[in-house]
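Dear support,

We are seeing what looks like truncated structure output for some complexes. This example has two components. We would appreciate it if you could run it in full and send us the complete token output so we can diff it against ours.
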Amino acid sequence: MATPTALNEWLDQLCSSIIKTTTSSKQNQKRLQDAFRRHVKRHNFARTNQFEVAERLDGLEEKFQILTLDNLSDALRERRNELKDFQNNWLPDVLDLFLHLSGDPARNERLLELYRVPPRVGTPPPLRWKDLLADDPIDLHDRLWRMPDFRDVDDSGYEDDDHTVSTPSSASSKRYVGRQAHDSTLEQGKLLFDLSDKSASTKIYTTQQSPPAGFITEESFIRQALFLLQGLPVDVFTNKHNGYQRVSSVAVRGVPNTSLGTLADQISALRRAHDLVSSWIDKKTECAYIAAMKSAAEDIQHEYRKHLDAMQQEFTEPTRNSVISAIRLARFIDESNSGLAAIARFLDEVGDGDSVVCLEKLYDATQLSQLSGDYETYICLCSLLVPSLCTYLRPVWAWLENGRLESDNEAFFVQARSSTTHLPKLWHDQYLLYTTGQSRPPTFLASTAPDILACGKTAAFLSQLAGMHNKGTLTASSLRDQDRFLEMTRADPNIPFAAWFENNWHEVVTRLLQSKTESLKALLSEHCSFEETLHALGRVYLGQDSVLLDDIETKLFDRIDRCMDDWNDRFQLKDMLDEAFDAQGSPHVPNSIIIHSAYTSARSMHSRRTSVKILNALALQYVLSWPLANIIGEDSMTAYRRVALLLMQTRRAKYCIERTGYLSVVSVPLDEDATPSDQRYAQVLAFTLLNFVNTLYDHFTTTTLGPLTHSMKLKVRDAVTVDEMIHAHKNYITRLGYSCLAAPKVKVLRVALIALLDLCIRFSDLVSNAAKVQHVDSDHEVSSFMSARSRNRTLRGDQYGSDSEDDNDIGQTGEGYSSFIVLEDDTTIVKELRKVQAHFQKQLKFFVAGLRGVGRAGQHVQDLEQLADRLSWNKIT
Amino acid sequence: MPSKESKREKAKEVVDILEEISILLDTDLDRAQLSLCVSLIENGVNPEALANAIKGLRREVKSNEKALQDIRPESSMSD
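Here is the complete output from our reference environment:
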């Protein structure tokens, strides 16, 4: 402990050093010293808290770091750490003194002043090159010190490098702040940047202001290439209309021009691919599967950018093992190029094509890449194709399973014609398959598009038929799950993707179609009575139930022969039908029949009944339920009615000959002048006509209708799709129309047949009631002498009052058999019969010839030739 | 004596380090003043009181210098 005297002396010295005596008088100096002593000795301050001092110094260091005065902070910390080695109790007090005396060290940085401080005792001087060379001189002529020459050829653009040895310059060596020796080569007070200073590394990224010409370093070229790939403008590459190109005046030291050109082309291509993909991704789209495609492309682009960032990182912060060179850059481009380049190639092919073209091109590109063995490109394109395809197929699955269409999806190739559903036209007219335009199916689905349409229509049909929404069950398929789909494409690269996908898809669609059709057929059979309806159509239209028809038509033809104008009255006919079907045990069938009657002819009943054409005024319409109306169309029903009419006309002719003509010639003399040979002649003619009619009817029913109907039912039962069912029935109807001469194309033959049938009626009229006017029997009323008006008046008065057709009623109303023939004076019945025969032969000859001609012409009418053969055997001798 | 020599060297080294810290903290103390301060503190002088005294002294000196500078231009002008 020093004496007070020593303390005072120190205090005076300190005070003097601060006052600087030259500037102040002694009196003043004395005063200041006294005050100084007083302030030092007399105080109320507490003792120094060393922990507080340490905290304040730590806070100061943090403050320097925050203010980016890292050097100051590091210097302070370094010296504090050095002080820890010295065990002195008064050190915290000294530091406390410094803290109290501290001005503004952050602003008044005094690092430079540390240079003026003499080096500490024992600090070794910095190592200098001349000291090393003095100690261990190097051989400058040793090959080790020569600069290697990487040139392949001696290009004229290269400078001639002298193989000189460059010794490290002492000026470039690191200088430690605050501890350097006084080096004559170093300027005092000049601070050199420490290369480990991170702030200095930003200078690496600055580009030159003007386009370079001549040589640039490899590092500079790589840097600019990386900038270009990041989308920044650079000087070494210029943007022309067809992409980026290297400035031709630029060469890279150490890289041959040809190699440089190739590398520059690769860089330009990669940048172009990146720009193309970016612009495509940025374009807005409302198409869901294109959006999925873009999302997958965005992932690939993201991976590329990560890779580029890693390359950038490797360049800016090279590690011990990394080498930044043009070769490394070329390898990076090779690694990055496959994905983006593949996408850019297929986008080039798409051009301005629509969404479907885009999907088709992607599919083709994927297939091609696999077939050419480019597995990397194949994997990359698969990652785009699979999500897009799964999104595209989503509405297709909904359509296949439930027959449901999304209202706002215009990309699907099946669309509804209208928002409302007309159930009888559900199958034919409700849905439309687009084959052209933006909604068309892609080429790889085009072959299955008709099956897809049929399957969806079947599902929709089922939904409507079941009366509730057909939720269906999710079809298990690897094509449905995106992850599984992707996994399957990569499972075995040797399996052709296109073949695998198309086979799987075809199998799924076919299986669905079959199952849906089976379900529909079962529903049609159980709930819609499809087989029963076909049978009913046969009974109503095709004369399959002769007992039923006989019952109805006997009454009908009788009404015609009685010249009743209301012979085709709907209500009476309805009663006849009800009665007849009820007797056959099918009372429900007439509920589906609508009777159409026409009263259009102005001719009298007497003249109308002489032809089978009178039956045109009657038609039966069998009303099908809407499910069956989809299978059996309206045109088929029309054909049924046409066939039914012809059959009825044939039966009419047969009825006339059997009931009237034949009986008359067998039992009643023709007239009073008729000889036995005349009678015999009339009988033979009757046989001939009857034979003709029977042959004809037998051909229509037994030879044609029976086998065709049986074949049709088998085909309908075995049909795999609804279209096949419809086609089978339509085919059947077509053949029926030709075979029964009901088709429009064989109208000529039908007309000839009608004429023949009319001749049969004529014959019956001749032989049954032919008489001269003067030989009228008063027991028979001759309706030809009654005016049509009076007859009709009488009819209307009674038809709603009575349904019975007793003879008494007929006698009272004045109706009777009106098949009276009034012969001219110069003719006889026999002569008329001979005329009938002549006409019949002529017409038959024409008819048979026509049958043969038509029969040989087409494949559906071969049985007409058979009919012609049978009819030609019918000769009148 | 080696121990005295090493003690001196250590003391000198400590003062060197303290001088550098003093420069970094912008205390405006030269080496001589620093040595005197260290001696005073070693002998029990309170550092905060010492610091206040130094600061007060500096203020006085500065104000006196300023007063002297104000007087001198007037005297030159009168001449």
